[in-house]
Write a sequence for this structure.
């Protein structure tokens, strides 16, 4: 089954609780103060590009670069030869640039990192920072990641990854990666007929490593069935990918009136809030349950005994 990468989902789920742990405005990951500034405006919905490559290029162009930085023309130093992280998702696009930066005043990279964090696009979030010395051995690097806001239904993920290491002749080499996921529109709308009846199943217990258990099923009225079908049709597309572990949230089987052979089966998964739809046994492009709108509706239609599905509704949109 098509499901999202665990590494991406883990970070996306972590983003939901970041505001309480993020450094305050004007503070970099090391805790030093930086000057207030006007962030770069984020792109508007009208500027949404039409391909994954264009989206990644646009995000990279929004990356703040420290004053005086010059393009690095030599071979990338060993610690910066690869991205600092690369979620294993088939839809991920990574573009990068290398710069040489004069050694800033104060602790190494502190002023440079502070400048970057003070000039991020509006709505960006600090994701994480760490020293890469343990990973890279003797050649130490430091790095941090920020998440940019996304707009529209095609933009799924936008990260800027910053990594620095000492340059052989003094100063620092800076690597900036744009890691993005841009999901194209499906070739055709996934339209579930409104004149349907639905059998909805939730679960009392969910598990990432074992099948969900304790099914709780209910046959819905035509009104509720039509409402569910409409909610599914409004979902945006989801990226392709795979989860090593996942949990089944619910299943819905729609049976159109007078044509049971053209039934639709819908499965909702914990991983990435992915919704999979099959029509008469044929898989359609996956969908993304933005802001848990569908799972919220599902829970409202299930008996209270479907506690596993109910608890999973406490999710957040990336």
């Amino acid at each position: 089954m098509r499901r999202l990468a665990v590494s991406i989902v883990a970070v996306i789920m972590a983003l939901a609780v970041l505001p309480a742990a993020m450094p305050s405005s004007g503070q970099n990951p090391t805790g030093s103060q930086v000057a207030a500034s006007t962030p770069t405006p984020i792109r508007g919905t009208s500027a949404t590009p039409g391909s994954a490559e264009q989206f990644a290029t646009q995000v990279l162009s929004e990356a703040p670069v420290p004053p005086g930085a010059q393009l690095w023309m030599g071979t990338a130093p060993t610690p910066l030869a690869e991205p600092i992280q690369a979620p294993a998702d088939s839809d991920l696009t990574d573009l990068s640039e290398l710069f040489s930066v004069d050694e800033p005043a104060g602790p190494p990279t502190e002023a440079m990192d502070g400048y970057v964090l003070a000039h991020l696009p509006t709505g960006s979030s600090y994701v994480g920072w760490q020293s890469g010395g343990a990973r890279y051995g003797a050649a130490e690097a430091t790095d941090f990641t920020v998440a940019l806001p996304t707009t529209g239904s095609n933009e799924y993920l936008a990260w800027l990854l910053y990594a620095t290491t000492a340059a052989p002749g003094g100063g620092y080499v800076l690597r900036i990666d744009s890691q993005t996921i841009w999901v194209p529109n499906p070739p055709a709308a996934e339209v579930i007929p409104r004149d349907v009846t639905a059998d909805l199943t939730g679960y009392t217990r969910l598990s990432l490593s074992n099948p969900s258990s304790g099914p709780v099923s209910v046959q819905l009225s035509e009104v509720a069935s039509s409402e569910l079908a409409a909610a599914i049709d409004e979902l945006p597309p989801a990226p392709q990918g795979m989860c090593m572990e996942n949990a089944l949230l619910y299943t819905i089987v729609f049976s159109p009136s007078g044509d049971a052979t053209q039934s639709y089966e819908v499965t909702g998964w914990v991983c990435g809030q992915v919704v999979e739809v099959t029509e008469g046994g044929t898989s359609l492009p996956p969908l993304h349950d933005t802001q848990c709108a569908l799972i919220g509706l599902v829970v409202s239609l299930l008996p209270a005994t479907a506690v596993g599905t109910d608890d999973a509704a406490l999710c957040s949109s990336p």
